[in-house]
C-alpha cells in the first residue's frame, strides 16, 4: 500500500478514535450551594466523574438555594446534591414537584439550630431571652447568621419571635459567620451563630446546640440528591451510582476537614479520594451492579 494511502487511513483511524472518545464524554451540570458540605461533595463527584473511564465533563454551577431547585427543574442543571427532607426544603420543592425527582438519601442525621461555644452558660434558646445582652456583636445583641435566602435564616427569624429574643439576626455569608465565631472563640467571648450538621466546625471547635423546646428548627432530617425529571432515563448508570452513595459523620467530616485544611476544595477532595479509594470504589461498584 502506498505510504500516502497508509497515512490517510491512519489519520482516519485516529480521527474516528477521537470522535468515539468525544461521544463517550458526557456533560453534567451540578447545581452547587455555597455550603461547606455541598462544596465538598460537589468537588468530590466532579473529580471522580472526570476520571477515566467515566470521562464526564462536569460543570459546578454555584447558585442560590432557590435557583438550584428552579434550575434543575427547568433543565438548566442536571442534578443538585443536597435537599433536606422531610421538612426543611419542602417549600422549595413544592413549586417544581412535577419537574424534579428526589433520589436516595446519602446522609442521615442532618440538623440545624443556634450554636454557641461550650464555655457559654446558656443551654436553651429560651435562655437567650434573659442573656441576650451578653451576645453583643458590633454594638447590638446579635445572632450571626448566613445568607437571608436560606432556610436556617427564616427559621431563626421565627425563633426570635417565638422565644421573644431581644436580639437581631445579622445575615452574612458562611465565611463571615465562621470568621466571627473563630474570633470570639479565640478570645473566649460569647457568640451565637446559626449552624447545621454536618459541618466541619464541630470538629474544629468545642460547640453545642442550644436546646429548642418549641422545636422551631424541627427534628433531624436526611439529605437527598435530586435531578431533573428525565435524568434517570438519560443516565441510568450515574443515577445508580449516586443512589449507592452514602456517607456517615466520619466520612463526610474527614472530607470537609481535608478541604478546610488545604484551603482548596479541589485539592482537598483529591487528597480525600486518594485516602478513601476503597469507599469510593464501593459506591461505583454498587452503582454498576444496580444499573445492569
UniProtKB/TrEMBL annotation:
Query: Would you tell me the Gene Ontology cellular component terms?
Result: ATP-binding cassette (ABC) transporter complex
Q: Which GO terms describe its biological process?
A: choline transport; glycine betaine transport
Q: Does the keyword rRNA processing apply?
A: no
Residue ranges constituting the ABC-type glycine betaine transport system substrate-binding domain according to the UniProt record: 27-275
Cell compartments where the protein resides: Cell membrane
Task: Output this protein's name.
Answer: Glycine betaine/proline transport system substrate-binding protein
Q: Which residues form the signal peptide?
A: 1-22
Q: Which InterPro entries match?
A: ABC_Gly_betaine_transp_sub-bd
Q: Keywords of this protein's UniProt record, alphabetized?
A: Cell membrane, Membrane, Signal, Transport
Please name the source species.
Modicisalibacter xianhensis
Top-level lineage group: Bacteria
A single GO molecular-function term is: carnitine transmembrane transporter activity
KW Cell membrane (keyword) present: yes
Amino acid at each position: 500500500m502506498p505510504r500516502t494511502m497508509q497515512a490517510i487511513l491512519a489519520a482516519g483511524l485516529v480521527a474516528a478514535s477521537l470522535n468515539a472518545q468525544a461521544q463517550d464524554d458526557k456533560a453534567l451540570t451540578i447545581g452547587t450551594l455555597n455550603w461547606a458540605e455541598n462544596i465538598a461533595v460537589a468537588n468530590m463527584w466532579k473529580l471522580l466523574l472526570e476520571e477515566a473511564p467515566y470521562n464526564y465533563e462536569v460543570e459546578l454551577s454555584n447558585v442560590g438555594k432557590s435557583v438550584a431547585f428552579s434550575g434543575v427543574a427547568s433543565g438548566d442543571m442536571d442534578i443538585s446534591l443536597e435537599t433536606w427532607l422531610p421538612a426543611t426544603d419542602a417549600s422549595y420543592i413544592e413549586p417544581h414537584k412535577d419537574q424534579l425527582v428526589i433520589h436516595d438519601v446519602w446522609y442521615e442525621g442532618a440538623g440545624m439550630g443556634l450554636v454557641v461555644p461550650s464555655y457559654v452558660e446558656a443551654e436553651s434558646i429560651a435562655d437567650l431571652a434573659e442573656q441576650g445582652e451578653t451576645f453583643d456583636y458590633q454594638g447590638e445583641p446579635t445572632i450571626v447568621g448566613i445568607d437571608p435566602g436560606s432556610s436556617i435564616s427564616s427559621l431563626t427569624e421565627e425563633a426570635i419571635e417565638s422565644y421573644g429574643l431581644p436580639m437581631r439576626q445579622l445575615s452574612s455569608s458562611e465565611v463571615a459567620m465562621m470568621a466571627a465565631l473563630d474570633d470570639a472563640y479565640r478570645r473566649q467571648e460569647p457568640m451565637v451563630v446559626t449552624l447545621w450538621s454536618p459541618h466541619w466546625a464541630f470538629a474544629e471547635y468545642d460547640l453545642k446546640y442550644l436546646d429548642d423546646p418549641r422545636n422551631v428548627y424541627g427534628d433531624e432530617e436526611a439529605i437527598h440528591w435530586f435531578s431533573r425529571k428525565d435524568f434517570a432515563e438519560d443516565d441510568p448508570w450515574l443515577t445508580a451510582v449516586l443512589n449507592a452513595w452514602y456517607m456517615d459523620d466520619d466520612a463526610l467530616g474527614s472530607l470537609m476537614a481535608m478541604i478546610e485544611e488545604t484551603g482548596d476544595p479541589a485539592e482537598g477532595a483529591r487528597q480525600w479520594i486518594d485516602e478513601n479509594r476503597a469507599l469510593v470504589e464501593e459506591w461505583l461498584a454498587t452503582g454498576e451492579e444496580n444499573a445492569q
